[in-house]
Design goal:
Blueprint: H1 3-19, H2 21-25, H3 38-58, E1 67-71, H4 79-82, E2 88-93, H5 96-105, E3 112-116, E4 130-136, H6 145-158, E5 159-172, H7 185-198, H8 203-210, H9 223-232, E6 236-240, E7 244-245, E8 251-258
Parallel strand pairs: 1-2, 1-4, 2-3, 4-5
Antiparallel strand pairs: 5-8, 6-8, 7-8
Helix pairs in contact: 1-5, 1-8, 6-9, 7-8
């Protein structure tokens, strides 16, 4: 991924973390405009992790549970749910705003560590460092299939033999609706929002007053290429879920991978 694209991605998610972090992570109407209950939001993470780890147990993977990585952790929806299972959990996110919020919310969870991802790989971690790596509907926000493949390779590099990589990737993404016509109220609000953001107006203020939202890139990757990239780095797909289709038409699959 080019440095320019990385910078653009980082800025967009920094804005999301400031403007509407819960909705950015779980794009459900109940969380729009900072609504929704934070406890219920975190409970969805515990439910998800419980279901996934039950499947990992059935596959007899990740029997050692020292370290886990939650890549694209946001405000720690999954990170905190992994904490009772692993000795140490690292939540990594590209947005400082997300990481700061996660640290505040989970300050009492002493084995969770939240860090900002500043590079284009996971070079900060040595080979075979984590027993579990989890990343659900995060890599889809990268700008290309090659960028997704690069992080799949990195996940496998830092995964211990016998560990579990749990990754959810879309094979089809929803088509963004066309922007509203310029000479309409919604169109003018949208253009005015981007203009004001360029002048430094807070994304939270623009989001609440003008319904302005930061960019959210969506990239699909085929199941065939996912399998090819995983196997090229010595990974083995132990489980593939049934396809999940969200309200916008994005179709995704959960893969549990080991090496």
């Amino acid at each position: 991924m080019s440095s320019q694209r990385l910078k653009r991605l980082s800025k967009a998610w920094q804005d999301w973390g400031t403007a509407d972090p819960l909705y950015a992570i779980l794009s459900s109407p109940e969380y729009w405009q900072n609504k929704g209950d934070i406890n219920r939001f975190l409970a969805t993470g515990r439910e998800t992790v419980s279901d996934l780890m039950q499947r990992v147990d059935e596959l007899n993977l990740c029997t050692e549970r020292r370290r886990a990585l939650d890549f694209g952790c946001g405000i720690g929806r999954l990170t905190h749910a992994l904490a009772p299972i692993f000795d140490q959990v690292v939540g990594l996110d590209i947005a400082t705003s997300m990481v700061e919020r996660a640290r505040s919310i989970h300050s009492s969870v002493t084995n969770c560590y939240f860090e900002v991802e500043v590079g284009e790989d996971l070079g900060r971690f040595p080979d075979a460092y984590f027993d579990c790596v989890i990343s659900l509907l995060v890599l889809q926000h990268l700008g290309s299939e090659d960028a997704i493949a690069g992080y799949l390779h990195e996940f496998l590099r830092i995964l211990r033999p016998g560990g579990a990589l749990i990754v959810q990737l879309p094979t089809t993404v929803s088509v963004a609706p066309p922007p509203p016509p310029l000479m309409t109220r919604r169109g003018m609000k949208r253009i005015f929002g981007y203009f004001l953001r360029g002048l430094g107006v807070s994304p939270a203020r623009l989001h609440s007053r003008l319904d302005w939202s930061p960019e959210m890139t969506m990239t699909a990757i085929s199941a065939e290429r996912t399998k090819r990239e995983i196997e090229s780095k010595g990974g083995r797909i132990a489980f593939t879920s049934a396809p999940e289709t969200d309200s916008g038409g994005t179709v995704s699959w959960v893969y549990i991978v080991t090496r």
